[in-house]
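Kindly inspect this one:
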Amino acid sequence: MSRDGLDRFRERLNADANLAGRLRIVDPGRFATVAAELARELGCEVAEADMRDAIAQGRREWALRWIL
């Protein structure tokens, strides 16, 4: 996973509500694809597979919060 690219993309989204808003309206089934495309537009090297992995990791971490 391109951790640096993903971190830079997250920073850009956190700093720009309009940019983040573009992702809020995306269909969940297309989210990873659209987010990876947007990341590349912003110069952040993030592959779609990396985006899917990050989403899955976030879901696991969120679920474990409630178990442990």
